[in-house]
Amino acid sequence: MRIRVAHLYPEYLNIYADRGNIAVLARRAALRGHPLEIEPVSVGDALRPGEHDLVYIGGGQDREQALIAPDLAGKAEALAEIVAGGAALLAVCGGYQLLGRGYRGRDGSGMPGTGLFPHETVAGERRMIGDVLLECELEPGARQTVAGFENHAGRTTLDPGAEPLGRVVAGFGNDGKSGFEGCRVGRALGTYLHGPLLPRNPWLADLLLSWAIAHASGTAPEPLEPLPDRLEGIAHDVAAGRARARGGRF
Amino acid sequence: MSTRLYLECAAARTVGRLSRVAGRGGGTTLPGKLLWKLDPGAIDALAARLPYGSALVSATNGKTTTTAMAARILSTQHKLAWNSSGANLASGVASTLLAAPDAELALLEVDEAALPEILRRTKPQVVSLGNLFRDQLDRYGELEIVAERWRAAIAAMSPMTALIVNADDPVVAELAVNRRNTLRFGIDDPAHARTSLQHAADSKYCVRCGKPYAYEAAYVGHLGAYRCEACGHSRPPLDVAAHNIHLDGLAGSSFDLVTPGGIARVRLALPGLYNVYNALAAAGVAYALGTPVDEIVAGLERFTAAFGRFERIEADGREIVMLLIKNPAGANEVVRTLIDAEVPSVVVVALNDAIADGRDVSWIWDVDFEPLLERVERVIVTGERAAELGLRFLYGGLPEASLEVVDSLDQALTRGLEHVPVGGRLVVLPTYTAMLALRAIAADRGLVRPYWEQA
């Protein structure tokens, strides 16, 4: 099954090795016989609901994020329609912030968001930097861990009742105090974690791919055929150990 | 020297000797750490004693090599206080000044984040700013934050201080806009331009209006001859330039060095365009200090390599070539140099994640390793984060059969050498602390001397 990916602003938002996440999705799809078609969607390009099975948006430096924020705000409706239609979405770091209702800097300046995720972000005094370990249960009964790295000044507050990506075992997470990290709306996942995120958390890559395949084929999601993932497991465990030993806390 | 400073210095020197006697590494920063704790103002007093003052060199990439090149040029004229082992924080600067009581001129490599404070305290004659690339975001924060701190430091600096800036880096060049007493250096040789910016290039957007730059020529990362079609901002005219560059693989390079004081051909024993940039920065520093062009050329030609950046080590009839990698821009140039020279059949890549390496290892995904992966026969990954490197290469298309994961650096070096026939070459690409450990392993095997025993 052909999987159509929209990669938002790849030339602006690529600060934390976002292409690693794309490479992992592409290879793991190909190993299961599904070609991944990646379309860069940048400033001035249209998002066409129904024509994308997976949307990816990464993080950038403040300057690059400010350059694309107005264009992204104009894509809010299309993004909401894409996610409501059952396509998968992964937003990392800056992209995660901008898909909330907005970002407010310490100097009072603001950037509009798209409102896809029910959260708001306000810049804090100290950056939250370090290794992170999460525990997630994205499907009932299927507990998994995610190991990554965070580096953000923004404190993200989820609306009451909003679903986080996971519970923080070690590290700061959304705001350094709630004990939650990331956000989930249907098949849309947002997170601060890079590292990149997917190479050392292959189950998450496969879950996103299974959602994207379900969208492409119009069927219910089915688990993908497992891969050996020996090195992925070691990398995950080393990163998880780093988070336990030196993950950030206030 | 005041009695207090004298006593502080004596105590700190003793600690350095004890550290070496105790076998705890070089003891290069310990005395300075102590002095820095006792009295941060001691740096000001130690720097003020220098009859020819100080020259500071900072950059994301190339500061160690640039400083070492400048030392090669200037050491025939002056007794130097030079932080040759790369101890480039305030404590390292304090140690360096402390260890050289007879020095006439301080030549100091300075960490990007530490530059404002060291600049304020040493009141240098010359400051050289080479480039800004994304680097260890977990430690320095975003590139813009470093640039902003530099901007404030340069604005507060004496107008008498000579400023040397890389005109090919838009953010760095803009720090010196309209400033007098400034030398702007860069490369002018379209034959060596890249056709496109590399993946994850920094500073691609106009520093004045935010529109993308058009590049007449991009040489290393985002360094090159840029021009903004929207507002007209472009690379300023060059005072110090390299023309007619010839790259000769790992053996070195040659180029015409153009300065306001004349033109001369330089033959460098270091590979790659990035070392041409380093040579231009070093030439700028020496020129600003009044060195004639022929002495600059002679110094550059005497230069072989800076600590750990590019080393050739003989091992049982085989050659180990060690090239430091630490961030995407620097590693991309290392890969490009290897490809342009002679593609090695076996490469050992070592990734550690201590603070000096960067705790965030995501940068390995921003390096364009692919041209190397397509050509090598075997890659051995090692270090504390060997598995991450292995994933980087497998997902980058390296066949599984070509990858070996060896956790121990010592065993990885042995495995690498086993794959290389006598007369052959093993390429080793370590991050900073892995480089230190590999040097120690080589020294244990009798292959290199520890750096604190070298001249």
Defining traits:
heterodimer, A: 250 residues, alpha/beta, 6-stranded mixed beta sheet, globular, B: 455 residues, 9-stranded mixed beta sheet, 21% strand
Describe the protein's topology.
The complex is a heterodimer of chains A (250) and B (455).
Chain A: E1 3-8, H1 18-31, E2 36-41, E3 54-57, H2 62-73, H3 76-84, E4 88-92, H4 94-98, E5 102-104, E6 110-112, E7 119-139, E8 142-158, E9 166-170, E10 180-181, E11 183-185, E12 188-191, H5 202-217, H6 230-246
Helix pairs in contact in A: 1-5
Chain B: H1 3-21, H2 30-38, H3 42-48, E1 54-58, H4 63-74, E2 80-82, H5 90-99, E3 105-109, H6 115-122, E4 126-129, H7 137-140, H8 143-155, E5 162-166, H9 170-174, E6 182-187, E7 213-220, E8 223-228, E9 240-248, E10 252-259, E11 262-268, H10 273-288, H11 293-302, E12 310-315, E13 318-323, H12 328-340, E14 346-350, H13 370-373, E15 378-382, H14 386-395, E16 403-405, H15 409-418, E17 425-430, H16 432-444
Parallel strand pairs in B: 1-3, 1-4, 2-3, 4-5, 5-6, 6-9, 13-17, 14-15, 14-17, 15-16
Antiparallel strand pairs in B: 7-8, 9-10, 10-11, 12-13
How would you characterize the overall build of this protein?
The complex is a heterodimer of chains A (250) and B (455). With 250 residues, chain A is of the alpha/beta class. Chain A contains six helices and twelve strands. Chain A has helices at 18-31, 62-73, 76-84, 94-98, 202-217, 230-246, and strands spanning 3-8, 36-41, 54-57, 88-92, 102-104, 110-112, 119-139, 142-158, 166-170, 180-181, 183-185, 188-191. In chain A, strands 2-1-3-4-12-11 form a six-stranded mixed β-sheet. In chain A, strands 5, 6, 7, 8, 9 and 10 form a six-stranded mixed β-sheet that branches. In chain A, α1 (18-31) packs across α5. Chain A is globular and about 50 Å long. Chain A starts with a strand and ends with a helix. Chain B is an alpha/beta fold. Chain B contains 16 helices and 17 strands. The longest helix of chain B has 19 residues, at 3-21. Chains A and B meet through α1, α2, β7 and α6 of A and α14 of B.
